[in-house]
Write a structure and sequence with these properties.
heterodimer; A: Jelly Rolls; 2 domains; seven-stranded antiparallel sheet; six-stranded antiparallel sheet; 13 strands; elongated; B: mainly alpha; 11 helices; CTLH/CRA (chain B); Protein GID8 homolog (chain B)
């Protein structure tokens, strides 16, 4: 397996074992970000108060605490509305966004409005009267979705009422509430960032805003829970082939060479009452997967125990073609691991010697340069396991090398073209579907994270 | 990357190549997959296989606890499957008396939240006080819960963490309650059956749920895009969208 690519990025169609180098790079960048998650957390901030810079000055005043507005004008026409937006747009993460207003004084005409608008909204018009905005108006209980005429929607509201406006990212809808009761929802046709907005439009109208500092009157959590429950129920009702889990687990164990576990598993499935029948749909496929199972198991065990010399010896015996090219990725990973094992037990001098002997040839090759440098850095720290390159000393690194060796042996057999177990294929598909859907929603809403699913008791976050 | 839109259905079209690129870009951790498989082995009762320690790196607290109690949990699950609910409830109570207490406590909290003070007090006296007498910790919990009655705005009072726990339990029990009704069981003590189902839920493997989510996610995306599906879960093969 000679490397021809000089770029650091792995191309799966070229040398599939190179992907393991990328996995190491992922650990490295995760360490730099000081986080254990594989996906980045967006640190989106939520609205906290009203924006006093762009609010319709001359028509309204914003209170010093920036959580109240009062109309100061006498309204004469449709272009002297007092409008205020929140200081930030609604964040995209999470299932919903929600805020409330309290009508302190409905004034002469009760023309209060709550809704969402975009940056650059004409701050003399009610939310909903212009395109790319929406508003629920208190004087007539109508909903306005981008033009001057609205549609009947809900009850009117006035002094003493608490009205809420929210975005449901899962269903891509706006929803509104009044005094803790759900009023209704409309499709959200507007894309991009949206600012919570409030409008007042007659003498003495005064409204205060709650962006979450105080408890909401409407039970948003309960609403989210019921949305999640409905979704979960729909998912529970989906039928999958019986015993498919067993088949997937079996092929997983075969693929990665967990021979002992597989033997115990096979025995158990045959001896349960009634015996579990795993559909053997593709006998040839299983032969491919069970290729050299015993050797692969042995190699994995050796690597997992840090016994790299024995692993290399066995490879030389059984699969000389894999270690023939001593600049291959597999050789690199194994020699690197040997170095790591020496550092682990404090044999630094021996490590340096080994490095000079076996790793020097990789220095200067773009493909390996960054990883070698990080790995050698282990020598510098008195407590390498606590250093930024400490991930090399973790179990996961041994697992990674074991997986790479396993993949190298598997790819020996010409028919075996999958580098991924079936389980992995399914999980990838699942992740991409969720990501793609979220992306089509403008990156709004909750994301699917396998790591969270596995460590929580619920199956979806 | 440019995507074409299918004019007839106005769905975004994603080609096989583009889709495969996205698939290859997914970062799946081996540890997570091992955890998933371990969870399956453990919850399905393959104690021997799970014990082979092929996952010698820590796979999280939950899995370790699972392994320890797996035989007990399997017994509970069997009892429920055989329709022997009373037996199951007894077993759960033996194994985890806190769970039953917490569920009753949650019901009490709900009554308090709904302002049904008299009913709440009655319930507390009948159901919870006896357990409080047996167990000092329970008694303290009970006192904390009843204290909720005193505060008008329960969510801001010092014992509001009770409401959080109750929310979590409520979520689980709501789902289970829905499943319960949809399977039209007829049980007298619905609350206790919910408890048992909740307990059992933790003994179900996550893998099948993930497969269901996959199907669901594919259907959801189908509404907005044309893309390669996996139609046969057992092969995991990508199939081009049929046009």
């Amino acid at each position: 397996m000679t490397e021809t690519s000089s770029s650091a990025a792995a191309v799966n169609r070229g040398d599939p074992i190179s992907q393991f180098l990328d996995k190491i790079r992922l650990s490295s960048s995760a360490a730099t970000r000081n986080t254990n998650t594989m996906m980045e957390e967006d640190n989106e901030e939520s609205p906290t108060e009203l924006n006093t810079i762009n609010s319709a000055g001359g028509f309204l005043i914003v209170s010093p605490d920036k959580l109240s507005v009062k109309y100061t004008n006498t309204n004469l026409h449709g272009y002297d509305v007092g409008v205020a937006q929140a200081n930030r747009p609604a964040p995209f993460k999470g299932l919903t966004y929600y805020f409330e207003i309290f009508v302190k004084d409905a004034g002469v005409k009760g023309n209060v409005a709550i809704g969402f608008t975009k940056e650059g909204f004409i701050m003399r018009r009610q939310p909903g009267w212009e395109v790319n905005s929406c508003g629920y108006h208190g004087d007539n209980g109508h909903i306005y979705r981008g033009k001057g005429t609205g549609e009947a929607f809900g009850p009117t509201y006035t002094t003493g009422d608490t009205v809420g406006a929210g975005i449901d990212y899962a269903s891509q809808e706006f929803f509104f509430t009044k005094n803790g009761a759900f009023v209704g929802k409309i499709p959200k046709d507007i894309k991009g960032h949206l600012f919570p907005t409030v409008g007042v439009h007659s003498q003495n109208e005064e409204v205060s805003v709650n962006f979450g500092k105080k408890k909401f009157v409407f039970d948003v959590q309960g609403y989210e829970t019921s949305v999640r429950n409905k979704q979960q129920m729909a998912i529970e009702n989906i039928s999958i082939p019986p015993n498919i889990g067993y088949g997937l687990v079996k092929t997983y164990l075969l693929h990665y060479g967990y021979e002992e576990t597989l033997d115990a598993f096979n025995l158990a499935t045959k001896t349960t009452v009634p015996p579990i029948v795993i559909a053997q749909d593709n006998a040839m496929d299983e032969d491919d997967s069970s290729y050299d199972l015993h050797q692969r198991k042995t190699l994995r065990k050796l690597v997992r125990n840090g016994d790299i010399d024995a692993a290399l010896a066995n490879l030389q015996d059984w699969y000389p073609q894999i270690v023939q090219d001593d600049k291959s990725v597999v050789c690199f990973l194994l020699h690197c691991q040997k170095f790591i094992e020496l550092v682990r037990v404090g044999k630094l001098a021996e490590g340096v010697k080994y490095g000079r002997l076996e790793l020097a040839k990789f220095v200067g090759l773009t493909k390996f340069q960054d990883i070698i440098e990080d790995c050698f850095a282990l020598l510098v720290y008195p407590k390498p396991e606590e250093s930024p390159v400490g991930y090399f000393l973790e179990d996961s690194q041994r697992e990674l090398v074991a997986d790479a060796v396993n993949a190298a042996v598997l790819s020996n057999k010409k028919d075996v073209c999958h580098l991924h177990s079936r389980l992995e294929l399914l999980l990838r598909q699942l992740t991409v579907c969720c990501l793609e859907r979220r992306s089509m929603n403008g990156d709004q809403g909750e994301t699917f994270r396998l790591h969270h699913v596995l460590n929580n008791n619920s199956t979806r976050r | 990357m440019c995507y074409s839109t299918d004019n007839a259905t106005s769905k975004k079209v994603i080609t096989r190549d583009e889709w495969e690129k996205k698939l290859n870009a997914v970062k799946l951790r081996k540890e997570d997959m091992n955890t998933l498989v371990m969870n399956f082995l453990v919850t399905e009762g393959f104690v021997e296989a799970a014990d082979k320690k092929f996952l010698s790196f820590p796979f999280g607290e939950t899995a370790e606890i699972d392994l320890a109690t797996i035989t007990d949990r399997m017994a509970v699950k069997k009892a429920v499957q055989n329709g022997n609910v009373e037996d199951a409830i007894e077993k759960v109570n033996d194994l985890n008396p806190e769970l039953l207490f917490h569920l009753h406590q949650q019901r009490l909290i709900e009554l308090i939240r709904q302002g049904k003070t008299e009913e709440a007090l009655e319930f507390a006296q009948e159901e919870l006080a006896p357990r409080g007498e047996e167990n000092q910790a329970f008694l303290q919990e009970l006192e904390k819960t009843v204290a909720l009655l005193v505060f008008e705005d329960a969510s801001n009072c010092p014992v509001k963490d009770l409401l959080d726990i109750s929310h979590r339990l409520k979520t689980a029990s709501e789902v289970n309650a829905a499943i319960l009704t949809s399977q039209s069981h007829e049980k007298d003590n619905c609350l206790d059956v919910i408890l048992v189902l909740f307990y059992c839920e933790q003994t179900d493997p996550k893998l099948p749920s993930l497969l269901k989510i996959l199907i669901w996610a594919q259907n959801q995306l189908e509404e907005k895009a044309v893309y390669p599906h996996i139609n046969d879960l057992s092969t995991g093969l990508l199939e081009d969208p049929s046009e």
